[in-house]
Amino acid sequence: MPDATLAEPTLSPPRRPSVRFMLSHPAHLIALGFGSGLVPIAPGTSGTLWAWLAYVAMQHWLSPWLLGTIVALSVPVGWWACTVTARNMRIADPGAIVWDEVACFWIVLWLVMPAGLAAQAAAFVLFRVFDMAKPGPVGWADRYFKGGGWAGGFGIMMDDLVAAFCTLLVLAFWRHWA
User: How far apart are CA 134 and CA 93, in angstroms?
Assistant: First the structure.
């Protein structure tokens, strides 16, 4: 009889996100963007739209200091939530995890506001292009920082942090030269 301790571990299939899964742990609720990541088509875009609407709503109800604190805390909280959720889904970077888009687009909005609707829309489009196409440094961050364990959540968030930086850089050039 073979020794059971030497047997290869059985790999469980990835878990599909659902409302039940999302509500089973606070990290899942956050990482799945309070449900915005559950849409079947373009969850990253859905998460970014949710981030935009949530930011505008928070801006009306919260002081600038409290809003800035929430934006700042969204990154470390997101690192934790994305790590836990990716591990529980058994996928390195699931598409349903959209907190990376939420937190990073909040950073963009926090730095460009107050801005008119056209500038906000430009920021949205630029951020989505950088996040989806992953040109240059965004693609590098996406490849370089992927991993499991606690690095997993950081890797999920890192390419979006770079996409946010690139978005802000383009907006700064546009503002300077316009």
Answer: 15
